[in-house]
């Protein structure tokens, strides 16, 4: 998170883009999210609500072409 824009190329060059590296990056991201928002002492609905809101936003973006096409269809 502390990467400057000028250092982005060298930072990306040091990343592991093998299948195991990508899987471990997703695992680290999941662990960070889980420990920050889900696995807390006095947890609330915030972490789960953020996850659901992200899911709704992504599913809307994925289906936007279909929704846009249906918007102009006449049903009569």
TrEMBL record:
InterPro entries of this UniProt entry?
F1F0-ATPsyn_F_prd
Please list every transmembrane segment annotated in the UniProt record, as residue ranges. Answer: 43-62
A GO molecular function assigned to this protein is: proton-transporting ATP synthase activity, rotational mechanism
> Does the keyword section mention Membrane?
yes
Q: What GO biological process terms are annotated to this protein in UniProt?
A: proton motive force-driven mitochondrial ATP synthesis
Major subcellular site: mitochondrion
Q: Where in the cell is it found?
A: Mitochondrion membrane
Keywords from the named record? ATP synthesis, CF(0), Hydrogen ion transport, Ion transport, Membrane, Mitochondrion, Transmembrane, Transmembrane helix, Transport
Q: Name one GO cellular component term.
A: proton-transporting ATP synthase complex
In this record, what's one Pfam family?
Answer: WRW
Annotated PANTHER family: ATP SYNTHASE F CHAIN, MITOCHONDRIAL-RELATED, ATP SYNTHASE SUBUNIT F, MITOCHONDRIAL
Q: Which family does it belong to?
A: Belongs to the ATPase F chain family.
Which protein is depicted?
ATP synthase membrane subunit f
The scientific name of the source species is Seriola lalandi dorsalis
């Amino acid at each position: 998170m502390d990467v400057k824009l000028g250092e982005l190329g060298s930072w990306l060059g040091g990343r592991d883009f093998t299948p195991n590296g990508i899987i471990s990056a997703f695992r680290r991201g999941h662990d960070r999210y889980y420990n920050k928002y889900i696995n807390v002492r006095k947890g609330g609905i915030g972490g789960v609500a953020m996850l659901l809101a992200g899911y709704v936003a992504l599913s809307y973006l994925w289906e936007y072409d279909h929704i846009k096409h249906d918007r102009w269809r006449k049903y009569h």
